[in-house]
Amino acid sequence: MSAWELPQSLTVGNKEWNIRSDFRVALDILKYFGDPNYEEDEQWMICLDILFKDFASMSPKLYQEACGKARWFLDLGEEKTEETQSPAFMNWEQDAGLIIPAVNKVIGKEVRAIPYMHWWTFAGAYMEIGESLFSQVLSIRQKKQKHQKLEKWEQEFYQKNRSMIDLKKRYSKEEKQKQKELLALFD
């Protein structure tokens, strides 16, 4: 496949499998990868079921290869290793309200109103986000994670917008239940 093409299928087990390539599908998959209520193997099965149109007819012998191809697709055709993984500075769900306006600005229209946009097109626009509220939030998050000093205006912005800037920890149902039980002890 050339860099000038957008994949609509992935080769698994020497067969072309049609995929759902719209950006909303990819974001839905990424949501499950961030959900602590699912084990990693469950997240991958959900990913394959969502991504591959005919997943139900895929042999379980092909699942591992299919996971590799799904990762390649979600990573925009790049082979990523553990060394290339960076710490999380953003969360697609939490930051959606910041990302969409910034991507809209790059694309020049409301992307949610477009019936179909390939994941790689959306991600390309995401990577081109320039000066925006989202880029300010990311900059402050990066500085905070690296324990770097914030500029005075960044400190003020952070104090006024903590809920927007701080990445929220997601808890599994079991963790939430344990927290409730612990709080009940203090009532």
Walk me through the structure.
This protein is mostly helical and 187 residues long. The protein is globular, with a radius of gyration of 19 Å. The protein has helices spanning 23-33, 40-51, 63-74, 96-107, 119-127, 133-145, 152-160, 162-165, 173-185, and strands at residues 9-12, 15-18. It starts with 8 loop residues before the first strand and ends with a helix. Strands 1-2 form a two-stranded antiparallel ribbon. The longest helix is centred in the C-terminal third of the chain and has 13 residues, at 133-145. It folds into two domains: 9-84, no CATH class; 96-165, no CATH class. It holds the Pfam family Phage_Gp15. It comes from Anthropogastromicrobium aceti. This is Bacteriophage Gp15 family protein.
Shape: globular
Strand content: under 5%
Percent of residues in helices comes to 40-55%
How would you sum up the major sheet? 2 strands, antiparallel
Domain count: 2
Cα-based radius of gyration, to the nearest Å: 19 Å
Strand order of the largest sheet: 1-2
* Strand elements, count: 2
What is the rounded distance between the termini?
62 Å
Question: pLDDT below 50 for ≥5 consecutive residues: which ranges?
Answer: none
Supply the helix-strand structural class.
mainly alpha
Q: How much is the average pLDDT?
A: 90
Task: Describe the structure using short key phrases.
187 residues, mainly alpha, 2 domains, 9 helices, 2 strands, 51% helix, Bacteriophage Gp15 family protein, Phage_A500_Gp15
